[in-house]
Every structure is written in C-alpha cells, then in structure tokens.
Design goal:
The protein has a two-stranded antiparallel sheet. The protein is built from 16 helices and two strands. The chain has 421 residues and is an all-alpha fold. The protein has a single domain, classed as MFS general substrate transporter like domains (Growth Hormone, Chain: A, Up-down Bundle), CATH 1.20.1250.20. The radius of gyration is 21 Å and the shape is globular.
Length: 421
C-alpha cells in the first residue's frame, strides 16, 4: 500500500485509527451507563433515550455529510467531524444533567456522520480497485476493534478513575489524531490523475443516484447486514449473562474475543479479495462472494444461537464475528466500486443513512421480543431472516458490482454500466 501503488500505508493506518476512535467514542456511554445512571439519578427511560439519541442525528446527517465530502476536500471534512465528536466526548465528562448529555450525544452523532462518506471519498480517489479489499479490511478492523477495546479498557479505567475522567481522556486522545492526519500529504497527482480528474469533475445529480437500482439494493443489503451487527453490539452482554450465566468479567472477555476475531477476519478476507482480483477474477464475482458468503455464515450462526447450549452458543457467537468480518470489507468495497470517485460521498451518505436505521430498530425489536418471550430464540431467528433478505438484496437486486459510468447518462438519468473486461 505504498504511494507507488496507490493509497499510502499512512493514510490507510490513519483511517483505520479514525474508525477505531469512532466506535470507541460512540460506545463509551453504554460502558458508563450504570455509573452515570446512579450518579445523575437518571431513569432507565432517560438512559434509553441517551443511548438512542446518537442515531437520531447520525443517520439523517449522513445525507449532508455525503454532500460535503463531494463538494469540499474530504480530508478536511473528516478532520472537522473528528474535532466535533472528540470535543463532544471530552465535554461529556463535565455533564451535570440529562439535557446536557442529550445535546452532547446529538453533537457526537453529527460529528461522526462524516466518517464514512469522507473516508470512502478519500479511498475512491486514492486507492485502485485492486487495493480496495485490503484497505477496507483494515478500515473494518478498526471499526470492529473499537467496541472490544472500548468496553474492556473503558470499563477498567472507569472503575479506577471514574467515568468523567475517562470521557475527558478519550475525547482529548481522539483530538490528537488531527495532527498526523492534517500533515499527511495527498497522493501524487501524477499517479492518481484519472481518479483525481473524475473526482473533481461534476458528478451525477442526487436524482440520478437515487434512480439507481444498485443503490437501493445496497441500502437494503446494508440494513439487513447491519441489523445483525447492532444486535450483537447491543445485546451480546445481556445474552451471555442472562441466558448462559456468565459473570461480568467473563462476559467482557468473551465479547471482546468476538470483536477481535471479527477484526482479524476482515483483514484476512480483504487481503484475499485483492489477491483474487490480481489473479484475474472480476469485481462482480469477488465482491458478491464476500457479501453473500458473509451473510450465509451469519445466518447459520444465528440459527445455531437460537437453539445452542453454552458451548454451542460460544462457537456460534464466534461464527457471527467471522461472518461480520467477511461481510463488512466487501460492503465497503462494493459501494466504492459502484459509485466511483465522482459519487461515493453522496452515494454512501444515502446508503449509510438507510443502513443505520438498523441501529434504531435492531436493539428495540430485540428487546421487545425478549420481553415478550423471555428468551433470545426468536430474536436470533428474526436476525437470521434479515440476513437472508440481505443475500437477496446483494445477489438479485444488485445485478452486477462494477463501476457505473456516470458519463453515459440518458435524458431520463439512467446511466449505463461499465463492463469489466
């Protein structure tokens, strides 16, 4: 991933670190929730509102974030977003009541909304198609390691110095990322001139993008795949403790292990997809195999979770981590391949807005089902059905995963598909 072959290793490392910070900062409220609830005398309803409020701003803000990533320098858009969410995290350590916490959670969602549109715009410009698997594998690993490290390290630190000091520490540490990012030189223009020229030209209108079948198939597929991720993020601790009798320390270790396994899988499968492309396989085959294989594996593991004993549940949850690690890099690379440098900011803003509605629905639906039935069986089966729907979305609705030729647009706004040789 050196500069001579496209995107630099430094850019990939910093984007991976930003994804890691992104998930640590968005998840630390859940880790601190018992302490904050007691110290600020919050009700469970107020705590639930705070945990959900992040998505109230994060999901709809994807749309303007995508527009900003297209119109402005995506590197600076990402820097501004991280500055906002780092400040919101640090200021949470000074919060004294529910209203202040609510405003800061909304600020956090606004800041984090630029993460993926701006990152994907940067990668679409600077990375070649043959690098997308590897770089997105690393990006996904940062996203998946965030909950693991945030839960373990954050929990231990909160027990030692209190939740306020941890929020201030994490927020200030996040802001340190800005210095190396803003001093990182862009890719060499001579090497990246085709991508840069395309990215700087006028891209397709929002109407043209919204008329693409591939966009809506990707939106549905991401929603279905992300539903499983948010079920695991939200309910894995409760599932392990209430259903299988794990102590809190055991639960934290198992939960962190699932995320670490998922992150390692994402790096491995991303690298493998690049090797497969280099061997002559087409983008359509490589990306669809990653998406469908990941969702198939998740489906099987969720069905196993619904009926497994203790050992089977541990193996099935580890399998879910592997499936998410297969699916996520392919999801990221698919959006970048389809939209290309001209449209990826707005495209993924729309797609990520739709996909993150799962962050609002999966925890709620799971909680309602568990309350009604007293067990997780049907909640896992619902998630398995969602994964199957994701397979249909990427396997059938998205006909081919190849770069869209945005210049070949007729008067109805229907662009042709550029066929790979």
């Amino acid at each position: 991933m050196g500069e001579s072959s496209g995107v630099s290793a430094r850019v990939v490392a910093l984007l991976t670190l930003a994804a890691f910070i992104n998930y640590v900062d968005r998840g630390n409220l859940a880790t601190a929730a018992p302490l904050i609830r007691d110290q600020l005398s919050l009700s469970n309803t107020q705590l639930g509102v705070l945990l959900a409020a992040f998505f109230w701003s994060y999901a709809p803000a994807q749309l303007p974030a995508g527009w900003l990533a297209e119109r402005l320098d995506p590197r600076r858009v990402l820097a501004a977003g991280l500055a906002l969410w780092g400040a919101a995290t640090a200021l949470t350590g000074f919060a004294t009541d529910f209203i202040v916490l609510l405003v800061l959670r909304l600020m956090l969602g606004l800041g984090e909304s630029v993460m993926y549109p701006a990152s994907f715009k940067t990668l679409a410009v600077e990375a070649s198609e043959g690098q997308r698997g590897g770089v997105n594998g690393f990006l996904a690993s940062g996203q998946l390691l965030g909950p693991a490290v945030g839960t373990l390290a954050g929990g231990l630190l909160m027990a030692w110095v209190g939740w306020r000091a941890v929020f201030i520490l994490f927020g200030c540490a996040s802001l340190l990322w800005l210095w190396p990012w803003l001093t990182t030189p862009p890719a060499k223009v001579a090497q990246q001139s085709p991508q840069l020229a395309a990215a700087r030209s006028d891209g397709p209108s929002a109407g043209v993008i919204l008329r693409r079948r591939e966009l809506w198939g990707s939106c549905l597929g991401q929603f279905c795949g992300t539903y499983t991720l948010y079920l695991v993020l939200s309910w894995l601790p409760v599932y392990l403790v209430s259903t299988h009798g794990f102590a809190m320390a055991e639960m934290a270790a198992v939960g962190a292990g699932v995320y670490v396994l998922s992150a390692a899988t994402s790096v491995l499968t991303g690298w493998t997809s690049d090797r497969w492309l280099a061997a002559g396989a087409g983008s359509n085959r490589v990306r669809k195999v990653g998406l469908i294989a990941g969702l198939l594996w998740v489906t099987a593991c969720l069905m196993a979770c619904a009926h497994a004993n203790l050992v089977g549940a541990l193996l099935a949850m580890a399998g879910c981590g592997v499936g998410i690690g297969i699916f996520t890099p392919a999801l990221f690379a698919t959006a970048q391949t389809l939209a290309g440098p001209q449209a990826i900011g707005r495209w993924f803003g729309i797609q990520n807005c739709f996909g993150n509605l799962a962050g609002m629905t999966a925890p709620l639906v799971t909680g309602m089902v568990v309350d009604r039935t007293g067990q997780f069986t049907f909640a896992f089966l619902i998630a398995a059905v969602m994964a199957v729907a994701g397979i249909v979305a990427f396997g059938v609705v998205v006909r081919r995963i190849e770069p869209i030729d945005w210049h070949a647009v007729d008067h109805r706004g229907s662009p042709a598909q550029a066929r790979a040789p």
